[in-house]
Amino acid sequence: MHILFIGDIFGRGGRTIVKERLAKLVKSYGVDLVIANGENAAAGFGITPPLAEELFELGIDVITTGNHIWDKREIVDYFEMANGNSHSMARRLLRPANYPEGLAGWGFYEGTKRSLPYAVINLQGRVFMAANDDPFRVADALLDKIKAKVVLVDIHAEATSEKISMGWYLDGRVTAVVGTHTHVPTADERVLPKGTAYITDVGMTGPYDSVIGVNKEQIIGRFLNNMPVRFEPATGDVRLSAVVIDCDETTGRARKIERVMIT
Ligand SMILES: [Fe+2]
Ligand SMILES: [Fe+2]
């Protein structure tokens, strides 16, 4: 089974390159399952229901997110729409599982693609981020109830140490642990000894003539002056950052992880 995971889709540029390139990527890598982080799809800040559905229509099976998930308030109503329909688009949009108990939305999804069972878990780190529940123990609890052998975990976190720790912690228990959030791809992709594919950050799908997606003059100005500024998405040098994971669908063990960056 081949899984394509696309890193943080940022703004119109990110959405457009996915629209233009996804079909060809799926064909050339023989991809069975497509997962993408969409927390920045709406001009960098969150995702709206229509934008989520636009991404699903392109062939993305599950959308993970992160700290920006609550930026667009209508997403809460969208999550509520999924109640009672366990495979609807609204149900396949995830938010980190370790946000406080009782919040709208789900942090994991279990389904089948081409009759192959799979699961996706979305977690958020706690180092330099909100003080959510412990993502390690939340992962344990979710893995206790998930039946699928093929399990992909998006660890949306700032600190490399926290992400690498999660990779080792889940080695042999999930198919892949892929990092998101920093928008900077790392060159450390590998299959860990017990069969879990790992990368610290997949990188952003969006404008690289920017500071992590935002107009660079605005961010430089923020560093120079410490004044609040409105962040606008940049437009130049749009790239798609992803990984392709090849795994054995019967055991869930990864065979290979390959980094992909296309312009
Ligand atoms: Fe992001
Ligand atoms: Fe983030």
Can you tell me about this structure?
The protein is an alpha/beta fold. Helices cover 26% and strands 25% of the residues. The protein is built from six helices and twelve strands. It has helices spanning 11-29, 49-57, 74-81, 135-145, 160-170, 216-225, and strands at residues 2-6, 33-37, 62-64, 108-113, 116-124, 150-156, 176-180, 190-191, 197-199, 206-207, 238-247, 254-262. The strands form two sheets. Strands 1, 2, 3, 10, 11 and 12 form a six-stranded mixed beta sheet that branches. The protein has a six-stranded mixed beta sheet with strand order 4-5-6-7-9-8, with helices on one face. β4 and β5 form a beta hairpin. The model has no long low-confidence stretch (mean pLDDT 97). The protein binds fe (ii) ion (2 copies). The site of one fe (ii) ion (FE2) has 6 residues, from loops.
Question: In terms of topology, how is this protein built?
Answer:
Blueprint: E1 2-6, H1 11-29, E2 33-37, H2 49-57, E3 62-64, H3 74-81, E4 108-113, E5 116-124, H4 135-145, E6 150-156, H5 160-170, E7 176-180, E8 190-191, E9 197-199, E10 206-207, H6 216-225, E11 238-247, E12 254-262
Parallel strand pairs: 1-2, 2-3, 5-6, 6-7, 7-9
Antiparallel strand pairs: 1-11, 4-5, 8-9, 10-11, 11-12
Provide a count of the helices.
Answer: 6
DSSP strand content: 25-35%
Strand-and-helix sequence, N→C? Answer: EHEHEHEEHEHEEEEHEE
Oligomer: single chain
Termini separation comes to: 25 Å
Summarize the amount of helix as a percent range. 25-40%
Uncertain runs are none
Instruction: Report mean pLDDT, rounded to a whole number.
Output: 97
Radius of gyration: 17 Å
> Helices and strands: which structural class?
alpha/beta
**Molecular shape:** globular
Give the strand tally: 12
Bound molecules: fe (ii) ion
Sketch the major β-sheet. Answer: 6 strands, mixed
